[in-house]
Amino acid sequence: MRKRPIGQKVEENASGEEETATQVCKSACLSVWDSFLLLDSQYSAQMAVCATKESTLAGMRPLMKLLEISCHGVPWILGALVLFFCSHKPSDIEVAFNMLIALLFDLVIVGALKIIFQRSRPSHNVMDMFMAPSVDKFSFPSGHATRSAMMGLFLCIHIISNRLLIGVTCVWALSVSISRILLGRHHIFDVVCGFCIGLLSYYMFLKAWVSQETILTYLDSYFGHVHL
After folding, report:
1. DSSP readout, 136-176?
2. pLDDT confidence of residue 2
3. What pTM was computed for the model?
4. What does pLDDT average to over the chain?
5. In whole angstroms, how far apart are CA 177 and each of 23, 59, 193?
6. Which residue among 72, 88, 186, 227 is the active-site one?
7. 225 annotated active-site
8. Active site residue 144
9. Is it the case that residue 221 has pLDDT exceeding 70?
10. Which residues contact 172 (CB under 8 A, 6 or more apart)?
11. Alpha-carbon gap, residue 44 to 85, rounded angstroms
């Protein structure tokens, strides 16, 4: 019978121990993550005080729905298109065009993340959202939170100059995000991450900002006859 070399046996034992240690580490990380998600679900359920007509603060549900509609993607995209077609100054056209691109950029990021993570919405959520696409059955991240953060920052930097209106815009963005939890649409973690992703997406988008000169160059026929 052929004997196995001693060195080879030591190497195999060491390799087995490393694999076992890796598996234990992965198992521990998954356990911690599952515990975190469970706590997130429990606290989210406690905060969903406007989720149904029988909830503790059901009377505030219409206000939460209004905030939901105020940050829906369709009205914002239509608004950006109207602003674009009704603008006459090159600077206004630049802002309107980039707002439209930023909104589309946000939709792509949120849609991709929802497909990747596929976290289910809270069990207490009543799925009665206005014009919700199929990907909206997933909860992470909150699209309203990303959009409110990105558009709030966009408005405050590029459109609004009045300090009072800037304050109102910031309150609106935060209120929309919080309403997602109170309305039972998302877990707390989905909203917090969504808001952070929205802020990060805005600064990522700035690197791809389309300049006024580029817009006028590629759309010269339109601007020359209608806008200018």
Report:
1. GGB-SS-HHHHHHHHHHHHHHHHT---HHHHHHHHHHHHHH
2. 52
3. 0.82
4. 85
5. 38, 19, 11
6. 186
7. no
8. yes
9. no
10. 67, 70, 148, 152
11. 42
